[in-house]
Structures are given as structure tokens and as C-alpha cells.
Amino acid sequence: MAPDLSDAALAKVTAEIAAHAAEFDRTGDIPWPGLEAAHRAGLLTATVGPRFGGPGVGPRDTARILTAIGEGDASVGLLAANLLNTHAAQAAHPTWPAAYYDDLLRRSEEGPALANAIRAEPELGAPARGGLPKTTITRDGDGWLLNGHKAYATGGSALAYHIVWAVAEEPAGADGSVPGSGTAVSTSRAPRVGHVIVPGDSDGITWIDTWDHIGLRASNTHDVVYENVRLPLDAFVEIPRGADGVYRDPAAATGPGSFGHPALYIGVARAARSAFADYARSRVPTALGRPIAETERIQSVAGEIELQITQAETLLHGALLRLAAGDQPDLSAIKVAIARSVIAATQTAVAALGNPGLSRHHPLERHLRDALCIRVHPPQEDAVLLASGRRVLKKDNS
Prior knowledge:
Number of strands: 8
Distance between the termini: 49 Å
Shape: globular
Strand content: 5-15%
């Protein structure tokens, strides 16, 4: 059944999630109350495809969902974004072993069942910058053994399934095939790269609590080590190389699904707007004798915050509408522009309030910390600006 995506229903979920956000920001624990609120509203399975019995909501409704969740708690929003992207990808191109995805859906009927792509590594850093992982899967009898160390694995021990980026180490038969798989491989022996679907309760998984971040503190984005984790053959999903034989990291490509992250941070900016307005309406300095909300200075600040949020929302939904119409806007540049507007809106609110805006007794301080995290999601601003600038400066640019 499709979830209720009316503005009123989403606002109710936002309020329920927000009621627990400050607590989990302080403890860093997995924000189960917020996840459960989103689950009860049917939001965590909204992108499950119709072929799997789900509502299969599209990119714009997904963005609305994530904005509402992010407005309540950015950490819950990040966990939800990663899960909704996983379901949407499976709906578009089914690659999971059937038994694993059936299990994820079964768990999702009972409560929040999280999944996330685990890609970064301590030495490599973000894979969008290039390079191949050290994490490997090695053929062992009729299956694989997974070994490696990953960083920034959002979701931590709450993950029901990991989607682990790895290189396949496998012996080639005389006919150029992998014994027992029937899969032909290149005679050049270029390594196969892909993702491995890994149940979160598999033997050999160890979590290292490394996440002590300025923002998204309850996202549990810890390190994880895989040691001889045994998996079936069909758990490996290869990412094909291009026609030129070059492997290109899919995380570096911007598409409709990648707008889930900007959407949740627009929610953070909205939360900052509300916190600013609540303070301005309640703050009555003795010398003024009336709420600061009635002054032109604060009203102008509120207008600037609103302008930045409107700009971000228009960029987000305008880009998705253009994609739906068959246009090809520069999505990477649009994501950078959204990030700038989100941060500008939140910083404007904090700066106008001075000390109260920076106090941990006021939610604006948390919203600022969370908003700054929008910059870490690929593609990063410097890479986008460099690529855009090179296009502009080409001699044949028209």
C-alpha cells in the first residue's frame, strides 16, 4: 500500500522524528525511535518496486519524503536516503540474490530494515575520487570469502544488509572462465569490480566505533572489518567496464537517485528556519519591549533564509522535472548550488542570533553542524567546479 504523502501526513512524521533528535545527537546511538516513526508511516519502503509488491514512488516523492525526514533528524534522513536508494536501484535493475532481497522485504514488514552501500576505505578515501578498493572477494569452493576494512559505513550494526564494494580475486581456467561460475573473463585478467550483498549478521563482521563527527552524530558511520565472510556465488554483482575497457565508479555519476541526499539537507534548512522563527517570536529583550520578530532586521533575516530555501527547493524539484521531461541538466552543478543554499540559510539563522544560535541548548547549533555535512557527498564542489570550468574554457565551446 502506498504511504500517505500529503503535506499534513509528512509534517506529522517530521514532528515525531524531531522529538527524539536532540537526544540521539548527544548519545550517538542508533536513532531507532525516528526510524520506527518513518517505518510506521511506510516511508522506508516507499521505493520498493511494484514487481516486489511495493508502491515504487518516483524521484520527486522520494525527495519530499527525505526532506520531511531530514527536517526531523538529519541522521535518520541519511539512513533513510541510503535505504530508499537501495530499494530504488533494485526496482530498476534487480541484482540481489532473490533470497536476500526477499529476506530484506520480510524484515521490513516487521520494522526498520536498513541497507547501505559500503564503499570508502581508510587508505583510499572516497571512491568517487578514483582508484580501486583493497577489499577483496576470493573464490572458495562454491562461494566467496570477503576480506577488507571499510570506513564511513553509515548505519553501523543496525544494517540488515551491506552492499560492499570489492575486487574479485579468482583463478582463471584454461578457457578463460572462472571455474564453477561459467563466467568468461578477459584474457588481460583485468580485475572484476563490483558489489557484494552481505547479510549484516554474517560471521566475520567486526565494527570499530570510529564515528565522532561534528554532524550526523547518530548516523553510526563507523569502520567495519570483514574477515573471511562466506557468501554464495550470486552475492557478487559485477560493475561492467565501459566500452573503452575503463572502470568508472558509479558513485561519481550523478542521477535522479543521487538527489536524495540534497533533499534531506533541505529538510535541515527548514528545521533551522523553524528554530529561528520560534526563537524570534519568543525573545523579548527588556530594552525593546516586544518580540524581536517584530523588528525589520529580524524580518529581513527571515526573508533571506526563506529565499535560500526556496532556491534550493526549486533547484531540486526543477532538476527532477527536467529529467522527467527528457532534458539533461548539469546535475552535479545543481547539487553544488543546493548545498550552498542549504548552508547559507542555516548560517544566516545562526549568525543573526549570536550566542543563542551557537548554544547546545538551542537546536540551531545542531542544524548548522548537520547542514555542513552536505559537502561530503559526491561529487564534491571542487571536482564539479573544475569539470565545469574546463568545459567552459574549451576552444570549441559554443
